[in-house]
């Protein structure tokens, strides 16, 4: 009868006496107890059910509200095991399990919890950044489309070596720093010296990207100033530092000596290559006509008979370069002293850059300056502006010649000026090996190669003159 009265009172909207309220409690005390129980056990108000259906019921109401002995709803404390029990995995998958409640969160009002996120009603999905798995909350990683906190776009993950590796000093290459580094087994690393850093920067300039074939010509009106030596040493520097192919062509009509600067592997000459040009299809075919030195520099020799080499004309030179540029990235040409020679016009028309070679003497400087004057007078002013002047055989004491003024003279007319020091190994006139050169000479060669390579970006940019058949 008491249960019926309670049910009737519930239907009439009256207060319901809770099971855990004292039996002798007054009606006013029961009214204060009922809302507390209702806040824990009663489901939130849901929209009306469809026609013909009964009153809406929430699956979580029966799961979250324990019943008393008389079948009435019993309010459980907020921290009781019933409200913080482990979520069953199957129930979580179905979405009909009661969600654990956080202190201070009213699931009916959707109030913000301790984390600042708004909690949904019971039975709804877990918060957006967590998912219930076997009673535990798992924090997933941020997806590719999820922006990082504080960012304005998709998160980017930098996995480069510079970002992941800890910064470390470069190992020294020369001097006492290298000795200390090697002597301590790498435990003490004083870092590279300023000279090592400068050398590394020069090597980076030498290895600048090159698109197509870059053609360099060595010129001088005076013989004996070191054109052939400069051709060999510069070509060897490029070949030893760059990964592409480098070849030097002997275009001297007066029995050139370029083939004597590296070990001779074949007796074939440029004449043999032109004779068999129709059968050359791949690099290995060209390689049968060249000799290669220790630095990987290849040389295409000229005829040793002056009477035969005199017939090497402009058309012959153009055919040679046209064939070589399909297989080589850098082509150096060792020219003779005669600027009026037939092949010289072809050399100047196809060249991307010039090296004007002079000795460290007054007559050598005058001859090199006269070469520039001739080029200006014959329509090669653009080639002069892209040329590099090389002053050879500079000794520590140059006597009464003011080399600074000589350098200033060529610097006003050329793109750059490089001084090559005197070297005993080069004075021998035999085969050249870079390892036998003095340190000062190797540094000057590296600077020369870097200066020439600075113009690689303009390879093929010159306006070529048309070939006039003869």
Look at the helices and sheets and give the structural class. Answer: alpha/beta
Using the CA coordinates, give the radius of gyration: 45 Å
Biggest sheet, open or closed, and with what strands and sense?
Answer: 8 strands, mixed
What is the highest CATH level, the class of one domain?
Answer: Alpha Beta
Tell me, briefly, the overall form.
globular
Instruction: State the fourth-level CATH superfamily of one domain.
Output: P-loop containing nucleotide triphosphate hydrolases
Q: What share of the residues does DSSP label as strand, in percent?
A: 5-15%
Spans of at least 5 consecutive residues whose pLDDT stays below 50 are 1-74, 111-120, 124-139, 466-470
Distance between the termini: 131 Å
How large is the count of helical segments? 18
The pLDDT mean sits at 74
Could you say what the CATH architecture of one domain is?
A: 3-Layer(aba) Sandwich
Please give the order of strands in the largest beta sheet.
5-6-4-7-3-8-9-10
Give the topology string: H per helix, E per strand. HHHHEEHHHEHEHHEEHHEHEHHEHEHH
Q: Report helical residue fraction.
A: 25-40%
InterPro entries: AAA_dom, P-loop_NTPase, ParA/MinD_ATPase
Keywords: Cell projection, Cilium, Flagellum
Protein name: MinD-like ATPase involved in chromosome partitioning or flagellar assembly
Pfam family, one: AAA_31
């Amino acid at each position: 009868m008491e249960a019926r009265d309670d049910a009737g009172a519930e239907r009439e909207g009256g207060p319901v006496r809770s099971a855990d309220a004292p039996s002798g409690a007054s009606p006013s005390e029961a009214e204060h107890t009922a809302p507390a129980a209702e806040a824990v056990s009663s489901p939130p108000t849901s929209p009306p059910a469809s026609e013909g259906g009964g009153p809406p019921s929430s699956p979580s109401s029966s799961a979250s509200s324990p019943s008393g002995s008389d079948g009435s709803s019993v309010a459980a404390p907020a921290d009781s095991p019933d409200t913080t029990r482990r979520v069953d995995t199957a129930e979580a998958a179905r979405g009909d399990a009661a969600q654990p409640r956080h202190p201070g969160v009213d699931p009916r009002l959707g109030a913000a919890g301790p984390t600042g996120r708004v909690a949904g009603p019971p039975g709804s999905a877990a918060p957006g950044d967590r998912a219930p798995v076997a009673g535990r909350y798992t924090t997933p990683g941020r997806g590719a489309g999820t922006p990082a906190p504080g960012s304005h776009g998709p998160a980017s993950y930098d996995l480069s070596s510079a970002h992941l590796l800890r910064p470390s000093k470069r190992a020294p290459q020369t001097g006492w720093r290298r000795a200390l580094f090697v002597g301590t087994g790498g435990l003490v690393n004083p870092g590279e010296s300023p000279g090592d850093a400068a050398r590394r920067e020069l090597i980076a300039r030498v290895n600048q990207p090159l698109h197509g074939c870059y053609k360099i010509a060595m010129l001088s009106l005076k013989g004996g100033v070191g054109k052939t030596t400069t051709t060999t040493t510069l070509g060897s520097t490029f070949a030893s530092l760059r990964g592409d192919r480098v070849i030097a062509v002997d275009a001297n009509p007066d029995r050139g000596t370029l083939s004597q600067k590296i070990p001779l592997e074949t007796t074939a000459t440029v004449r043999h290559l032109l004779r068999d040009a129709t059968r050359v299809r791949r690099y290995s075919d060209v390689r049968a006509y060249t000799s290669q030195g220790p630095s990987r520099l290849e040389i295409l020799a000229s005829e040793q008979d002056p009477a035969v080499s005199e017939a090497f004309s402009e058309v012959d030179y153009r055919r040679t370069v046209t064939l070589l540029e399909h297989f080589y990235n850098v082509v150096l040409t060792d020219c003779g002293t005669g600027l009026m020679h037939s092949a010289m016009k072809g050399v100047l028309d196809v060249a991307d850059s010039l090296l004007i070679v002079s000795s460290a003497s007054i007559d050598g400087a005058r001859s090199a300056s006269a070469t520039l004057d001739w080029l200006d007078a014959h329509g090669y002013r653009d080639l002069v502006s892209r040329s590099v002047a090389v002053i050879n055989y500079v000794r520590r004491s140059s006597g009464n010649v003011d080399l600074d003024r000589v350098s200033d003279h060529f610097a006003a007319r050329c793109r750059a000026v490089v001084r090559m020091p005197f070297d005993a190994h080069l004075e021998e006139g035999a085969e050249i090996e870079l390892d036998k050169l003095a340190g000062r000479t190797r540094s000057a060669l590296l600077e020369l190669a870097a200066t020439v390579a600075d113009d690689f970006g303009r390879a093929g940019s010159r306006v070529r003159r048309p070939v006039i058949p003869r």
